[in-house]
Amino acid sequence: MKQKQYLFLLVLISFACNQQDQNDPSSKPITPQAVYSKEDAGNWQGKEEEHTPLIEVLSKNGENNIVVSVTLINPRPSHYIEKIFIADTKGKPYAEAVFKNSPVSNAMPNTDAPAEKENIGEIISSGSNKTYRARFSMPLDEQTKKEYAVYARCSQHDLWMAEFE
Prior knowledge:
9 strands, alpha+beta, Immunoglobulin-like, single chain, globular
């Protein structure tokens, strides 16, 4: 698990260094943060239940649809999920979903996305909670489950990871 985190962090660093807004000279590169998980919440102890991506695999007619969701409880306008994505153990993104209503969605142009597949995620409000949901389609066998993980990027609580079971 640690190897996945370090490899992904290296890719994230190189990707983040190229994410400046070319039209805004005052913009600064994104500073990469650590990867957190349900088992290792680090500085965000107590936030793991809310931020760790939940993975649901739906198989039908040989197709695997992966539904990933993150529910934030009573989020403020500055607290949101920027994107959810699937990446391999080497840190290469396979698929990602950017959330249209997040303030950063305009800063993440679709044409420059590093993932092979991309879609727009949906935000579902229920009372004061918001669920960020993304749907992906990919082949998924026991080997693939070991080679890929799911990530969710929170505006305030960094990057969270969940592995396929």
